[in-house]
Amino acid sequence: MKQTNVMPAEGKLGIMVVGCGAVATTFMTGVLMARKGLTKPVGSMTQYDKIRVGRRDAKQYLHYKDIVPLADLKDIVFGTWDVYPQNAYQAAVYAEVLKAKDIEPVREELMAIRPMKAAFDRNYAKRLDGDNVKDCQTRWDMVLELQKDIRNFKQQNGCARIVVIWAASTEIYVPYDEQYHKTLGQLEMAMKSDDRAHIAPSMCYAYAALAEGCPFVMGAPNTTVDIPAMWELAEKTHMPIAGKDFKTGQTLVKSGFAPIIKTRNLGLAGWFSTNILGNRDGLVLDEPANFHTKEVSKLSTLETICKADDQPDLYGDIYHKVRINYYPPRNDNKEGWDNIDIFGWMGYPMQIKINFLCRDSILAAPLLLDLALLSDLAARAGRYGIQRFLSFFLKSPMHDFTRGEEAVNNLFEQYTMLKNAIREMGGYEADEEID
């Protein structure tokens, strides 16, 4: 490893997950099994990917941990909040994602992970009705209670550092409002006056995490940290933030396939995406107000890859539609269909059909691991604010929209950003450019 200014990953790393459902328990179970040598963390970039460092004769391909000091799986301690009181073992069994043979060997560890009471407002997720909920008078009370949770967890588990990651449901859409979300002062005033219309519960988690010196990752499409007030808080506390929405199935396909159409200079007339899923996420998204939040996230991908302004002949009139359908028999085994209408030489039409039968939590679990480990790395490297290099893992990557910045959604450009950030933090030069 070259000389690097990144602080070493010493001591325990607490990963506090908001939500103890299918995604969270699949993530926790996989990490606990992997560190016992009973399974492989397949799909995790931090555990498997290799990056080239150096050029010509000095060229070598190294795992991330051989370039930068990453936290080891054996040093991870899990905590969680959830509206339902079941421990992580009960929740994992209930989720029916993993087989008994993949849960039972770590039963005791999972049973010890008991959800703390959630900061919850049913108006933001009407399909959920758990009773493991904090009794808070105001949004500011929520913040203070969550800060107390983080401090207590850190002390009780002897953690050196904490990362907070949202793996709970999609909240109803909260549009950015300059009157409440532009400055940190406005945000705090809204929280203290209990403005429930403009302050989502997820914002309370993010505020509490950053105030306690913990990186925060938003794994749903919620507005949460994607507002200037939170960027200001992240700058003030020198903490990394990342979001939004884990990029698992259909959007992963879209961010990887749309560049093929663009690079080949084929035209795109329309892209219709529809999904069926039956887990808790599907139940929540069956509510139109919650689906709208997801829709905004999913729709943003295509238009930043196939740009109308750059190529009006090819992308000037794309019809882009996204649908999610709640279908209980499928549970966590999501199915995504994509119908893509393209056109080629002399405008002749062609079609592409993609049918992705995926497992939502199996695809999401390694993303939680990578985002947590890389956010912790960024904090130790002194990187704070929006972590654009983590765009690779996210559906709707955060960017400074107040200055006209555009998100990078092209998967291969995102991968370049990720590799260059790892190189830089490892003391190597960033030697790939995004055109």
From TrEMBL:
Domain Myo-inositol-1-phosphate synthase GAPDH-like residues, every copy: 249-361
Gene Ontology molecular function: inositol-3-phosphate synthase activity
EC annotation from Swiss-Prot or TrEMBL: 5.5.1.4
Key words, A-Z: Isomerase, Membrane, Transmembrane, Transmembrane helix
Transmembrane regions: 13-34
Cross-referenced PANTHER family: MYO-INOSITOL-1 PHOSPHATE SYNTHASE (PTHR11510)
Protein name: Inositol-3-phosphate synthase
Biological classification of the source: Bacteria, Pseudomonadati, Bacteroidota, Bacteroidia, Bacteroidales
